[in-house]
Amino acid sequence: MFNKDFIFGVSTASYQIEGYPFVDNKELSIWDEFVSKKGNIIDNSNGNVVCESYKKYKNDVKLLKELNVKSYRFSIAWTRVIDKFNNVNQKGLNYYINLCKELRKNNIIPLVTLYHWDMPLWLDEIGGFLNDEISDYFAFYTDVVTKALNGLVSDYITINEPQCIIHLGHRVCAHAPGKKYNTKEILHAIHNLLKCHGKAVSVIRKNVLNSTVGIAPCSRPIIPVCEANQLLYEKCKEKYFELKNDFEFPNTVSIYSDPIFLGDYPKEYYEIFKDDLPNITKEDLLLISQKTDYIYQNFYSGTYFDLDKSNKLIQKEFINGYPEGNIDWLQVVPKALYYGPKYLYERYKLPIIISENGFCNVDFISLDNKVHDPQRIDYIKRYLMELEKVSKEVPIKGYFYWSLLDNFEWNSGLKKRFGLVYIDYNTGKRIKKDSFYMYKKLIKNEGL
Ligand code: NOJ
Questions:
Q1: Which pLDDT score is estimated for 447?
Q2: Atom of ligand 1 at shortest distance to CA of 327?
Q3: Which atom of ligand 1 is nearest to the CA of 358?
Q4: Rounded mean pLDDT of the chain?
Q5: What's the whole-number mean pLDDT along residues 326-341?
Q6: What is the model's pLDDT at position 378?
Q7: Per-residue pLDDT at 448
Q8: Count of alpha carbons within 13 angstroms of residue 386, beta-carbon side
Q9: Disulfide engineering: 405 pairs with which of 177, 197, 343, 419, CB 3.0-4.6 Å?
């Protein structure tokens, strides 16, 4: 059982739920541009309508209230609140002010993500993360938001999943802006992204009384096939943080989290990238490593490993009989919520909040007009059992299910459903799935 102060919540993100991308003087974002090119999104869908949360936010809050969540994590669209001349757009800001007021009225704590991938297009056109002034633009945006939401919001996440921003946006190019970078450019972009985080932390600390702040990376824990083997455990942990000059390096844990939590890039970084290093100063590292309050982390899946006869790690396919996620990367590996937090805590020693965890399912409206999703219920329970187990060893402060609503799953489009609430994209109707009622019960502390 989690204790009374444990934060149960749900997460969403602006582009994935809001709709209405062309109203109230909103600027275009890289996602508005990316979805307009045929072939970029599997089903050629986009976020133009989705859940219409821009207009229906009161309905969202009603659902949150019924669920009884302590906190709601959502993100702000930079493009709604700042225009391309870097002026404040009050109309867009009002949306977030009203949403936060509605949350507070209902005793729900807003947890605001400042950047969940929807970069202003004008900023991308002047270099995006390769522009050395981006951290100043981000600081200005953070200043505007924190002042506007003063008294309503004290909990901030600066950036969501830096790994996906860089790896999917600039290496694999499956996400916006889909601009390929070479190794030198990637390292440069990562450093500027970390400086954005650092400057935002300074602004939040200056503007917000009793603030909490963090960043929300994602990771896929390396899972030992058997629990009792200490050598296997140590090797799996080492692999989880390992940094190599390979295709996957923009996707690793330590290249982002070591500078933030330990004050510098991993030792091997300077050696393996010696020909491509960005300009890194002592001041940068101090800026980036300012104190944060939590380790937020998004966990969905994991990969099993074992030792071979010469004690080398080998990957293991594991048929565990659990439900299968309806998206290629989502293997159901509940132990991710045991080993992931443990590895992170042992290295970075801060309390942990799971900022996302969720299941993608083939959901549909049954003949009884309900949406039955036993697979998602099974997933949530199994993962939370592991989280409960690790919470005896590691301080775990909260868990946010991804997502409140079915929404636009980036390049995978609208058919990939993660929500506790089903969205009928033809009618806009919202239907609470069975998992909604299960999560509600669980929050009421009726147990797993
Ligand atoms: C990670 C991202 O933060 C979120 O935007 C996405 O929809 C979910 N995980 C599921 O892929």
A1: 62
A2: 11
A3: 10
A4: 97
A5: 97
A6: 98
A7: 67
A8: 23
A9: 419
Distance from residue 115's CA to the centre of ligand 1 (Å):
13
> CA-CA distance, 251 to 253, in Å (whole number)?
7
Are the C-beta atoms of residues 439 and 401 closer than 8 Å to each other?
A: yes
DSSP string, 301-313: --EEEEE-TTS-E
What is the pTM (predicted TM-score) of this model? 0.98
User: In the predicted model, is pLDDT for residue 1 greater than 90?
Assistant: no
Nearest CA to ligand 1 atom 10: 409
Which residue is catalytic, options 18, 356, 386, 409? 356
Confidence of residue 320 (pLDDT cuts 50, 70, 90): confident
Q: Is 283 a catalytic residue?
A: no
Q: Which ranges in 305-430 belong to alpha helices (H)?
A: 336-348, 374-390
The per-residue b/e assignment along 436-448, b for 16 or more CB within 10 angstroms, e otherwise, is bebbbebbeeeee
Stated as kind and residue range, the H or E segment containing 194 is: helix 183-207
Q: Is 356 annotated in the active site? A: yes
Gap between the Cα atoms of 320 and 340, Å rounded: 19
Boundaries of every domain in the chain: 7-443
Atom number in ligand 1 closest to CA 330? 11
Class of domain 7-443: alpha beta
